[in-house]
C-alpha cells in the first residue's frame, strides 16, 4: 500500500486493493462542476416566461424525487437552471440560478437535506430545444434535477 493525495483537499488516502474505489472525501465534496457520471434520474421542471415561481403541477412532479432523496441521504441532486434565449446572457444566467434556488427551497421545505442539493445555472447556453419558436423556448425554461 502507498499513500497519495487523491482529492485535491490535501487528504492522504491509502491506495492498494481498493484502488478502484473513490476517496471518501471525494464522494462527499461539493463542487459546482456538472455531474460527469450518469445520473440515477433526471427530472425536468418547467417555468413560465421570465418567471421563477413554481407552478403547482410542477411542484407535484418533484414529490418522487424528494422521497428518493429523503430515503437515500448519500444521494446528491444537481439543480441545473436554464432559460430561453430572450434577454441578455447575464440576465438569463441569473434567471436560471433563481429557478434552481426555487427548486432547492421547495425540496428543503419538503424535508430534503440542503447539503444534498447543488445549484448550477447555465442560462441560455444549454438549450433543450430550439429558441426559434415559443414551443421550443418553453422547453428551455427549466431546471434539470439530476440525482446521483
Question: Nutshell version of this structure?
Answer:
Helices cover 33% and strands 22% of the residues. It is elongated, with a radius of gyration of 18 Å.
How would you describe what is shown here?
The protein has two domains: 30 residues, no CATH class; 116 residues, 2-Layer Sandwich (60s Ribosomal Protein L30, Chain: A). With 148 residues, it is α+β, with helices and mostly antiparallel strands. It is 33% helix and 22% strand. It is built from four helices and six strands, in the order E-E-H-E-H-E-H-E-H-E. Strands 3-6-4-5 form a four-stranded mixed sheet. The radius of gyration is 18 Å and the shape is elongated.
Could you name the key traits of this structure?
single chain, 148 residues, alpha+beta, 2 domains, two-stranded antiparallel ribbon, elongated
Give the tally of β-strands: 6
> What spatial form do the alpha-carbon principal axes imply?
elongated
- Which CATH architecture of the largest domain? 2-Layer Sandwich
Instruction: Write out the strand line-up for the largest beta sheet, numbering strands in chain order.
Output: 3-6-4-5
- CATH top level assignment of the largest domain: Alpha Beta
Amino acid at each position: 500500500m502507498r499513500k497519495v493525495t487523491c482529492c485535491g483537499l490535501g487528504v492522504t488516502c491509502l491506495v492498494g486493493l481498493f484502488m478502484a474505489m473513490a476517496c471518501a472525501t471525494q464522494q462527499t465534496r461539493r463542487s459546482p462542476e456538472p455531474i460527469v457520471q450518469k445520473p440515477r434520474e433526471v427530472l425536468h421542471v418547467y417555468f413560465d416566461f421570465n418567471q421563477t415561481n413554481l407552478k403547482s403541477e410542477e411542484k407535484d412532479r418533484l414529490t418522487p424525487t424528494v422521497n428518493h432523496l429523503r430515503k437515500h441521504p448519500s444521494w446528491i441532486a444537481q439543480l441545473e437552471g436554464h432559460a430561453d434565449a430572450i434577454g441578455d446572457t447575464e440576465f438569463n444566467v441569473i434567471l436560471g440560478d433563481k429557478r434552481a434556488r426555487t427548486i432547492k427551497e421547495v425540496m428543503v421545505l419538503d424535508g430534503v437535506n440542503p447539503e444534498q442539493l447543488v445549484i448550477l445555472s447555465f442560462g441560455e447556453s444549454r438549450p433543450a430545444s430550439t429558441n426559434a419558436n415559443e414551443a421550443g423556448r418553453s422547453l428551455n425554461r427549466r431546471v434539470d434535477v439530476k440525482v446521483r
